[in-house]
Design a protein that fits this description.
The chain is an alpha+beta fold and 235 residues long. The protein has six helices and 13 strands. It has helices at residues 47-64, 100-106, 135-140, 146-168, 213-216, 222-234, and strands spanning 4-10, 14-19, 24-29, 32-35, 40-43, 71-74, 79-83, 86-97, 113-123, 132-133, 172-184, 187-190, 199-203. The strands form three sheets. Strands 8, 9, 10, 11, 12 and 13 form a six-stranded antiparallel sheet that branches. It has a five-stranded antiparallel sheet with strand order 1-2-3-7-6, with helices on one face. The relative contact order is 0.16. The structure holds thymidine-5'-phosphate and aspartic acid.
Length: 235
């Protein structure tokens, strides 16, 4: 048992609390949603509850498959116990199908399949709007050591294989997703969350969007989409 302590940090979708154990933190999942670097704000009803449940199932799946994550256990509807990480300020995006910013950058239609998975890095900075960077920037600015970056990429590609198969078996295409990593006693662990906030998930048959793009693009039926993902992830 852990006791909840002071608020350490409040982000756009989660609040992080300290606990009486210096190695453990509590992630509290909020209903608030933002897009376009928080220029657009809103609430997705019960998102926090759904995202905690979805993330819990996916972290358990990944741990079972040998991925090292910060997940410890789900504590309550909106709270997850996690290992304390020193977050590496590099967002790792993995893509299987062209969508979003890649469609724009390459002048391609969304839905174009990729011959192999694409890995991209973004510098985690709200002020700068998370600019895209590459491995040279990561090295030159000392954001992560070479072996840390190698561990992140190896993990991210393995996560992609595991999640792609898991979602495919449930009638969902894993289009792309964003991961964050951190250091914990010398180890690189997968952190943050894995939810429809940070993944693109399309219905395999209809190609209907089941993720935060419904909020970003005002497509409606947002709660229904998250509920469907939750239902399928728990099936
Ligand atoms: P993008 O196509 O906008 O670059 O997004 C790629 C993936 O990363 C998509 O699944 C959404 C996710 N993502 C985040 O989780 N946070 C962000 O700030 C951005 C821009 C994207
Ligand atoms: N979460 C980011 C923001 O608040 C971007 C996004 O997911 O679209 O701006």
């Amino acid at each position: 048992m852990v006791t909840k302590g002071n608020k350490l940090y409040e982000g756009k979708a989660k609040i992080i609390y300290e606990t009486d154990n210096p190695d453990l933190l509590i992630q509290y999942f909020k209903d608030e949603a933002t897009a376009f670097n928080a220029q657009k704000k809103g609430v997705i009803k019960e998102k926090g509850v759904m995202n905690n449940a979805i993330s819990t199932r996916l972290f358990k799946l990944l741990e079972d498959e040998g991925i090292k994550t910060h997940f410890v256990e789900k504590l309550s509807e909106r709270e997850m116990l996690v290992k304390r990480l020193e977050i590496i300020p590099v967002e790792v995006v993995v893509r299987n199908i062209v969508a979003g910013s890649l469609a724009k950058r390459m002048g391609l239609e969304e839905g174009t399949p990729l011959k192999e998975a694409v890995v991209e890095f973004y510098y985690k900075s709200d002020e700068l709007g998370d600019p895209m960077i590459n491995n040279y920037h990561i090295r030159a600015f000392g954001l992560a050591k070479d072996e840390e970056l190698e561990a992140m990429v190896e993990s991210a590609l393995k996560v992609n294989d595991i999640l792609k198969k898991f979602f495919d078996e449930r009638g969902i295409l894993l289009v792309d997703f964003k991961l964050e990593y951190g250091r914990h006693h010398g180890e690189i662990l997968l952190g943050d969350e894995i939810t429809p906030d940070g993944c693109r998930l399309w219905d395999k048959q209809t190609l209907e969007k089941l993720d935060k793009d419904r909020f970003r693009r005002d497509l409606g039926k947002i709660e229904e989409a998250y509920e469907e993902v939750l239902r399928k992830v728990l099936s």
